[in-house]
C-alpha cells in the first residue's frame, strides 16, 4: 500500500507526542517547584481528612518516580482526580464540558474554514485588484482584534437580539427536546460567530498565500497554454495543490482555535472546557486545570495527526 | 510558393521595470515558418528566445506589452490580444516547456492532463479521450498504462515524453519546444530529439526548437534562426549557416562549439550581450564583433536577403558600404 | 556540447544587499509595509513619550465611575473614574514592552536553534527538530494559563512563557533558510578555504538570515501582544500594571457591559488591533519581499498589453 511507512511514522510520532504531553502535564503540576497538586496547602477548605485521602490517592508522600507511575496508571482508568470545587470526578466534569464545547467550536471552525477558503482563493486569483485589497485587509483586521474584545463588541451590538449568556435560557425539564435544541442553538450563535470571525482572517491569509505560490508554478502556465480560462485553471490546477500547505498550516493553527475557544467561552459563559479552564484558575481548582490542560493538549495532538493523514491522502507524492 | 504557415512580423516585447523603465526583450523579430519544416531558434541565454515564443502563444504576464503581428494562415492572432489568441492555443500551436519536471501538475495523473485539453476544445471526451491519450503515450514511447501514474513516478526523460504527448493532444500544426532536452542526460537527449524528428515526419508537424545548444539544432533542424539581443540576426538552412554564415555572430557561435572529433581550436566570444533595458545604438553585436567598422556604431542593420531563404542583418553584406 | 555563453561572474555571487538600503526598498515598493511601519512607529512613540502625553494621571479620579465621553475626556472614564485616554497611553507602554521582549526572546531562541539545526544538519538537526515538533503541539494559551496560574502572574512570567512557545515556528523557518544558504557557492568556497564554522555562520549565514529574522520578530510581536491581552482577560495578567488587556479585563469584570460603557471596552481593543495589524503588514511585507516565488504569477486578471508602432521601417525583403 502506498506510503504505509508514512502512516506508521506519523502514528508513532503522534503516540510519542501523546506520551510527552502526558509527562509534561505531570511535570507541570506535580514535579516542578510551586507544584500545584501536591502542595496540599493550596487546596481550598481542606480538612485534615481530605488531605489524608488525597495523599493516599495520589501517593503524594511517595518519591516522584512512583508518583509518576501511579499517575500513568490512574490515567489509564480515566482517573484525573477530583475537582476541589464540586467534589465530582474531574473526568466527569470535563466530559460534560467537552460535550458543550465541541458543537460550538465545530460550528465556528467550519464556518471560518469555508469563508476563509473562499475569500483566500478569490483574493489570490484577483490579486492586486480592489477586491483583493479589501478582503485581505478585512482578514488582517479580524485576525488582529483580540477574540474576547470581538465577543464583547458583538454583545454590545446584538445584546437586544440574541442571548449572550450561557447555553440555555430555560431549564431543560420544562421544554420539549426540539425546543431545547433550538434554544441551545440560539445561544450558540454568538460564541460560534465570534470564534468564526476571529479564525477566518487567519485562514484567508493562509489560503491566499498558498494559492499565490501555486499560481507561480510552471504547471499553471501549462494549463493556460492549453487554453483553459482563468477560473478553470484555479479550480482544476491551483486549488488542489494549494490545499496541501493549507491543510498543514490550518492544523498548526489549532492552538489558536483552543485559545479562541477559551476566551469565547469566558466572555459568553458557555459551559465548555474553555470556561472550565477559566473558572478553575479563578477557584484554584488545580485538578480540574490539570485535567483540562491534558485534554486540550491531547486534542491538538489528535488533530495534528488527522491533518497529517489528510495531507497524505491529498498528495500523491508522499511515499516516505 | 505557398504562403508560410506562421509569419512573425516585427515582433516587439517590452517588460515594465521599476522606476518607469522598460526591458526591451524582443526587438523587431521577424521570422517565417513553412509547413512541415523543423526550425531551430538559437541564441545565448537571455537573448529573448523564450520570450518570443511565449509571445506567439500570448502567454506573457501583465507587465508585458507587445507590438507586431503573428500571422497564422493569414490571420493576425495578436490583433485582439488575449481573446484572439486563446482559441488557437493547443489546437493550432502547442508548446513543450523547458524543464517538463514542473510543467506537469504533480497531483493529477498524466493521462488526465492529456485528456484535459481534448475535452476543453471538444476534440474528444470520455472513453474516446482516454483511448486517444493512451495512443499518444504509445506514440511517444511510453506505454499507455503509464497514463494512470503521477508525474513524480516518471524519470526526467519520460516526463518530457509525456509533455510531448500532452502537446499533441489536440493535433496542433505547430509545436514549439523550448529547450526540451536541457537537464536531461545525453543518451535521453538523443532519444527525445529523434522522437521529435520522427513526429514531424509522421504527423506532418512543424517544429520550432528553441535552444542554446548548437549540436542539438544541427541534429534536428533543417533551418535555423540565430537570435541576438532580441532580434534575428541571421536565418537560413543549417548547411548555409554552418559553412557560409553571413553574420559574425553566427560564425563565432558555430566556431565556439567544440567538435568531438576535430582538433580545431575552441574560440569563445569575448564580452557579453548588451543590456536590454537601455536603448541600443547601432548594431547590438558591434562591441564584440571582430569586423566592425564605423557604420556599425551608428546604424542598426536590417535583416536583408542574401539568397533564397537566407537572410542576415549585417552591414558587411552591403558590399558598397564596407571599407577596403 | 557548446558552451553556454554567459558571463561566469554572474553565477552565484553573494547578493549585494546593504541592510539600510534594502529596508528602504521594501518600504518604498510595498505600501503595506510603509503603513505597517507607520502604525508601529506611532505607537512606539506614544509608548516612549507616555508620561508626557497623558492628559491626566492614571491614578487620578477625574469623574464618576464609567463617566461617558465628553469634550474634556474624549473617551470617558473607567470603573475608577480615571481618564480613559491616559489609561490607553499608559497601556501602550506595557503592552508594547511585553510584546517586544517576548518576541525578542522567541526569535533569539528560535533563530539560534534554527541556525544550529540548519547549518550542522545530521543528528543535531534531527534531535532539535524533534524537540521543536513536540513543542509545536502544545497549545500556547493553555500552557500560559497553567504557568501563570501555578507560578503567579507577573510580567516576567508572561514574557518568558510567550517567548518559550513562540520560538518553534521561528526555528523551522530559519532552519529552512539556513539550509539553502549553506548550499550556496560562496559558502562552500569559504569552507573549502578553511574558514571555521562560527566565522561562516556570522559572516555569511547570519546576514542572509537576518531579514527573515526581522520579519519574524515583527510578526512575533503581534502574537505576543495578542497573547498578553488574552492572559490579562483571564485574570492572569500583572494586576499592578496597566496594559490594554487589563483595561479590558477590569471593564468586563466591573460590569461595563451592563452599564453600556462601551468606551471602556472598545478603544483598548482597537489599539491592540492597530498594533497587531501594523506588525502583520510590516512583517509579512518583509517576508514576501524575501520569497521570490511569490513574485511570479502565471495567472492574473489583467493580460499583456498591445502597442502600435508608428513608422517602424520597411519589412525585410
Description:
The complex is a heterotrimer of chains A (320), B (324) and C (317). Chain A is built from 12 helices and no strands. With 320 residues, chain A is mostly helical. The longest helix of chain A has 39 residues. The two termini of chain B are 38 Å apart. Chain B has 11 helices and 12 strands. The model of chain B has no long low-confidence stretch (mean pLDDT 87). By secondary structure, chain B is α/β, with parallel strands linked by helices. Chain B has one domain: Rossmann fold (3-Layer(aba) Sandwich). In chain B, helix 4 packs across helix 5, helix 4 packs parallel to helix 6 and helix 5 crosses helix 6. In chain B, the strands form 2 sheets. An 8-stranded mixed sheet of chain B has the order 6-7-8-3-9-10-12-11, with helices on both faces. By secondary structure, chain C is mostly helical. Chain C has a single domain, classed as MetI-like fold (Orthogonal Bundle). Helix content of chain C is 65%, strand content 1%. The longest helix of chain C is centred in the first third of the chain and has 37 residues. Chain C is globular. Chains A and C meet through helix 1, helix 5, helix 6, helix 7 and helix 8 of A and helix 5, helix 6, helix 9, helix 10 and helix 11 of C. Strand 4 of chain B pairs parallel with strand 1 of chain C, so a sheet runs across the interface.
